[in-house]
Amino acid sequence: MACLSDIVDTERYPIHADPSSPEYTQLVAHCKARLKAVGSVDLEGFIRKAAIEAMLNELAGLPSYNRLQILSPYGQADSFRGLGEHPATRRKFAQDTHVVAGDQIRTETLLRQVYESALVTQFLQTVLEQPEMWKLADEFQDLNLMLMHDGCSRAWHYDGTEAVITLMPVSYTHLTLPTKRIV
């Protein structure tokens, strides 16, 4: 297991600091201000570049499924047949993504270590002002790796959670996954 500071740039983002320290409270205040202003926070460089490369290497070759679907913002478009002009049926979006389920991402991977980190969870809980946060108990959905190649898309949709946390490397061109197509 790697030390979290080898994965996360804790000098720049001191999530390991005492929550009452000036550096921690400044980081939290910055994140809260961004959430209020634009609805999201971008912590560029939060994951160290070398750790991103190591993550991509650890995840290369994992089995994936190609989700090629037409969805409404509320889920599968086909599940709303018979609703007539219900808002759920009005807009449909194409989705073409490659997904690795959580059970394929081993415990010792850097990505799983970040996901399981109590420090990361506590930081997110503080920023999101949540009294408690839980990790999803579904072994297939708890942690997903989703890839979108050039020309692919992710359908716009509503999430049924308080927040969605995304680690988004700029490029993963060397990451290839064996794919089974789901239509």
Describe the structure concisely.
The protein has helices spanning 4-7, 22-38, 49-59, 87-90, 110-116, 118-127, and strands at residues 64-72, 75-76, 93-100, 145-147, 179-182. The chain has 183 residues and is an alpha+beta fold. Strands 1, 2, 3, 4 and 5 form a five-stranded mixed sheet that branches.
What is the count of β-strands?
5
The DSSP helix count reads 6
Residue-averaged pLDDT:
83
Structural class: alpha+beta
Biggest sheet layout:
5 strands, mixed
* Rg over alpha carbons: 18 Å
- Give start-end ranges of low-pLDDT stretches: none
Write down the oligomeric state.
Answer: single chain
As a percent range, the share of helical residues equals 25-40%
Shape: globular
Span of the ends, CA to CA: 38 Å
N-to-C series of helices and strands: HHHEEHEHHEE
In terms of DSSP E residues, the strand content is 5-15%
Key attributes of the depicted protein:
183 residues, single chain, 14% strand, 5 strands, alpha+beta, 5-stranded mixed β-sheet, globular, 6 helices, 29% helix
Task: Write up this protein.
With 183 residues, the protein is α+β, with helices and mostly antiparallel strands. Helices cover 29% and strands 14% of the residues. The chain has 6 helices and 5 strands. It has helices spanning 4-7, 22-38, 49-59, 87-90, 110-116, 118-127; strands at residues 64-72, 75-76, 93-100, 145-147, 179-182. Strand 1 (64-72) and strand 2 (75-76) form a beta hairpin. The longest helix has 17 residues, at 22-38. The chain starts with a helix and ends with a strand.
